[in-house]
Amino acid sequence: MLNTLSGRFLILTTIFVLIAELMIFVPSVARYREDYFLDRLERAQIASLALLAEDMIAADLEAELLENAGIYNVVLRRDEVRQLILSSPIPSPIYRTFDMRDPSAWVLIRDAMAQLVDGEERVIRVIGNPVQDGGLLIEITLPSAPLQAALVDYGIRILILSAVISIVTASLLFLAVRIFLVRPIKGVVEHMQAYAEAPEDARRIIMPDAGVVELREAQEALQSMQTQLTGALRQKERLAQLGGAVSKISHDLRNILTSAQLFTDRIESSEDPTVARLAPKLVNSIARAVNLCESTLAFGRVDEPAPRLTRVELAEVVDDVIAGERLAIGDHDLTFEEDIPPGMNVRADGEQLYRVIGNLVRNARQAIVSSGKSGLICVHGAEDETAWRITVADTGPGLPKKAQEHLFEAFQGGTTRGGSGLGLAIAAELIRGHGGRLDLEKTDETGTRFRITLPKSNLTLS
């Protein structure tokens, strides 16, 4: 109960109402004490006026007047003359005098609280202004016990009333919170639980119906999220089915294309001028198709082995990559440059690192060759206390705008015309498997630069 929203709201409401009632209680008791004194002063003046009218009254009548007024004696000052009008024996000396002619609120509250807790029987004096201009000043002496009893009784009644008001108010607010907040929130939670059991079922998506603006906004946000998630799950399922089919097709197509590649080797030896002119284009087309099939199969393997981390001589890996790319450039004016510090060893899977660097260098070579201009590809290595960094930079035409928007997304971030974008997606995934990052540092009309960061610690780079 106490851990629920409505339970805590009930407790807080009760506490706050009690605090408010306490703030009312203190000045209310002070006001009651002031009225008590003013009432006694008025009674005393009325009794003294009766004596002045008769000039002389019997002792028993005087005692009755004092008893009815609840006082011991009355002093009235008229025409600058201080006159004892009514009197009776005082049981003890006067303890304290209170001036009610123009007291401040703080004085009234302070004296009232002191009187409320003072249980001693004392005699007090009260000074006030006579009503109806009945004199210059009136003084009375009276016992403090009746006043203290009256204040206690009044305080108890105020506290009981405050408690009743607190309980009623808290109960009403408790019911209101249960109806207008807790119940709708529980409804949202139940919708979420039902949706979690079958997120593909669109019938379980919440329909906003709350009357409270904030709750309705929360329901609408949840509805939007559930709708997007359901669509994403459906798309993921379809893509999984499509991926399985594509992998099978790519596998069979690769075998067919491999056989076709063998036939093209025979065609290249033909002496027919037309065949000799078209054969290289056919060979290149088939080679690109085979490469696409192999990349698709590689991307589709969810069981890509984890990297076997060993110490790898970076210069050897880069030499192997560049040696293979030199064979592919033909007579194009393209220069390769290696800037690897001697003895730089990185902790990586040598085969996977070769695939990543090879993919970046191959993309750079294809971009420069397709531009028809001369160019430079540079592979640079560096390290510090935290990581090894490998940079692959070129002087090509830069990446297309579309490729930059979906750079590491499969089938969307192709860097060349007709490219699938699988190469960079696979490369980024392999580097993440090492706990590192593959980042595009720069690309414009002056060239492109990628950076591979491999951490020296066992923690993944953020």
TrEMBL record:
Keywords: Kinase, Membrane, Phosphoprotein, Transferase, Transmembrane, Transmembrane helix. InterPro entries: HATPase_C_sf, HATPase_dom, His_kinase_dom, HisK_dim/P_dom, HisK_dim/P_sf, Sig_transdc_His_kin-like_C, TCS_sensor_his_kinase. This is histidine kinase. It catalyses: ATP + protein L-histidine = ADP + protein N-phospho-L-histidine. Its EC number is 2.7.13.3. Gene3D superfamilies: 1.10.287.130, Histidine kinase-like ATPase, C-terminal domain. GO terms for cellular component: membrane. One of its GO terms (molecular function) is phosphorelay sensor kinase activity. Residues 248-458 form the Histidine kinase domain. It is an enzyme of class 2 (transferase). It holds the Pfam family HATPase_c. SMART domains: HATPase_c, HisKA. It is found in: Membrane.
